[in-house]
Amino acid sequence: QVQLVESGGGLVQVGGSLRLSCAAPEDIFSRHTMGWFRQDPGQEREPVAAVSRSGTLSYYTTSVEGRFTISRDNVNQTVSLEMNGLQPEDTAVYHCAAIELPADIGFTNALKYGGYIFRAWGQGTQVTVTA
Question: Which of 16, 60, 103, 112 could pair with 12 in a Cys bridge, judged by C-beta atoms 3.0 to 4.6 Å apart?
């Protein structure tokens, strides 16, 4: 199983900002959509944001739209998640992932309705937002 290497995360107060970064092997990074997922104990894993291989398409779950920005650096094989205006409900373990999307249902629908396959996964980084 290919491991992705995450950095960033930590403890921040409400309204604060954090930046997560993830490095991937070139053969994985260049062939896949890259995304950030989060999971709290007892909760389902949720796709937070994703960016297509070319970087031209992006997806955000509704609760983070306007606050989070995903970007990818195709030269250095890294994907980042800039998180602003953090709220307590953003508290979770955040995982970087390389995912494969089906060709027939569109980028947004695949992320929104779970039509993707994980090809690589990071160990996760904790983000905690305190009031």
Answer: 16
